[in-house]
Each structure stands twice: as C-alpha cells, then as structure tokens.
Amino acid sequence: MRSVGVEEELLLVDRETGEPRALSTAVLAAASDAPGGHDDVFEAELQKQQVEFATRPQTSMGDLADEIRRWRAEAARHAEGLGAGVAALATSPLPASPTIGSGERHQWLKEHFGLTASEQLTSGCHVHVSVESDEEGVAVLDRIRPWLAVLLAMSANSPFWQGEDSGYGSYRSRVWGRWPSAGPVEVFGSADRYHEQVNDMVASGVLLDKGMIYFDARLSVAYPTVEVRVADVCLDAGSTALMATLVRGLVETASRQWKDGEPPARHSVALLRLAAWRAGRSGLAEELIHPGTMRPAPAETVIRALFDHVRDALEDNGDVAFAQERLAALLRDGNGAAVQRKLLAQTGDLRAVVADCVRRTAA
C-alpha cells in the first residue's frame, strides 16, 4: 500500500483582532523547546504570518487524520502562549500586510518577484504519495492532470482577500498563479522529458532552483513521491484526510493505467487552465468542468465522477467507507469557502469568522 504524507500551511493570527501576526520565529522557537522537540515537524514559510507542518508517511488514513489533528493542536498550543492562534485558512479574511522572512532564499524571492512575493500570504495543502520510480511518477503526473481542478474545488477555502469577498471560492489559487512556474502542465511522456524541462526552467535564470517548480503536481524534490500541490489548506482536518485519500486513489489508478498501456488524456494546458479557473471561482457552489468531457457539469456530478474513477483503488486500500463518509459531509456542509461565507452571513463580522476558524482548527 502506498504511503501518504501531508504538508499544511497555517495562518498565525491575533486572538483578539483576528489579524495576521508575524510570529513564525517565536512559534518555531516554542515548538523547538517543547518536550521531545518538534524541529522535524514545523518550519517557516515565505511569510512570517505563517507556519507549516509535515506529517510522517502513513498508510492508514485514520492515522493520518489523527496526526493532522495532533499537529494542528500543537501549533495552536505554541501560538497561544504568544497571544495568537492558528487558522487553517488559505487567505486572511481581514486586511493583511505580509512580512517576508529574513532568510537568504526569502529575500531573493522578494528582490526578484516584487509584489508577487510580497503579497503572497496564501496557505496550501500538499499531499505526497509514494511511487517506485521517477518513470512511474511521471506516468502518474501525466494521467492525473484532468482531475486536479476537482481537488481544488473541493478544498476551496479562501473566499476573502484584504477584507473583501473576492467572488471566488479559492482566491488563493488566483494569487498563487502569479508565480511563473505555477499551474497545470503538458503531458511529459517520460521521466527524461520531465527532468529536461525542469532543468531548462531553472537554467532560464527566472527560478532560483528546483524547489521553485510550482506545478499543480510534481515529482518531489526531497522524497520519492508524487506531490500534489493544487489544494487550499482545508478548514476541517477531515477534509484534508479526504484529499489525501483521493490523491492516493488517483496515483494508484494512474499507475495501473500506465502499466496496462492506457495512454493519458491529451487535454491541452489551455483547457486545464480554464478548468482550474472554474474550480477556483465556483468551488462547489456552481458547475465545474468535467475532466472526461471538458464541458460544464454540476459540481456533485463531477465529484461523483472522481469517486467512480478511483473506486477500485479505494476498495483495495480499504478507503471506500471513509471516502464516502467524508464526501457526504463535504457535499452536505460545504467546503471551507462555504463555511466562511455562512459564518459572515450569521455574524456580519470577519473577525468573528476568523475566531470561529481558529476554534475549528484547534478542535
């Protein structure tokens, strides 16, 4: 069974005002000083108003969900001692003035990318799934391309930007798309072709290194995994575990297709970009672009199509019941964007929205 690991980026906010606070250095110091130390779990992100954690590789989705909840709670505990909270929000609902980290890498990004870097206070969720080789990994990347926008729609959790409703379910995806290496990519066909393109992109001088290959899904730079990076950080930890479950299903399904000689769909990057825009705009509230037909279809129909596409792999992994339960909850309760908008409608106050999301994150 393939192992799965998750990286989540969390927003650090003032517990009283709900505004982002540049406390990552202090939170990381508190984590380092904790009994047993958490240096291998938490790390800094581009902005000081963020902190990231990474789970261990897991094969049980229940164990993965437990670990996600554990590290969210630990991050909240470390922040609480500083008068702050952590929120699994992909953008700040309240106006923010991000503070880029002082490290050499972060300063290079600030110098070379200007406002793209300075305004990039966004939080994503990255899912790593093990593969046996780069050749298998690239075969998987080629075959999961049409389904990535569906994951974005399901995870959408960033409706507000600088104190206003953006009109999008995932405005993070629009802000993240400003990076020159971000977004969907073409079919590569082989590991050699993938690495050739990555090397050419770095050699162009636009990117600092291979860590700046921000494809929606890529071969991990550090681990023998496929890394799916398209999703917003999810408000609910159970939704993160659902993302991981479906990504593992997609990877396993794509690998089987490759081994059976089934070619990848040849949807153009232009169409995939439209599908991603539609997913970021609509979330689950309107139609999405169906990965099979590349035509509009109700969001629930598209999600059911994703489940059907990976069902055999889910069954073999023992994940069907968990996936069905979480999908039903998602369709019933909505994604993070829907929850945030509902909270605003109830309270009329973005600060109250942030406070509720802090509570949900630490729960």
Automatic annotation (TrEMBL):
NCBIfam families associated with the record: gshA_cyan_rel, PRK13517.1-1
Keywords tagged on the record: ATP-binding, Ligase, Nucleotide-binding
MF GO annotations: ligase activity
Full protein name: Putative glutamate--cysteine ligase 2
Catalytic activity, EC: 6.3.2.2
Family the UniProt entry places it in: Belongs to the glutamate--cysteine ligase type 2 family. YbdK subfamily.
Record flagged with keyword Nucleotide-binding: yes
Catalytic activity: L-cysteine + L-glutamate + ATP = gamma-L-glutamyl-L-cysteine + ADP + phosphate + H(+)
UniProt cross-references to PANTHER family, sorted A to Z: GLUTAMATE--CYSTEINE LIGASE 2-RELATED
Gene3D superfamilies: 3.30.590.20
Alphabetical list of InterPro entries matching this protein: GCL_type2/YbdK_subfam, GCS2, Gln_synth/guanido_kin_cat_dom, YbdK
Function: ATP-dependent carboxylate-amine ligase which exhibits weak glutamate--cysteine ligase activity.
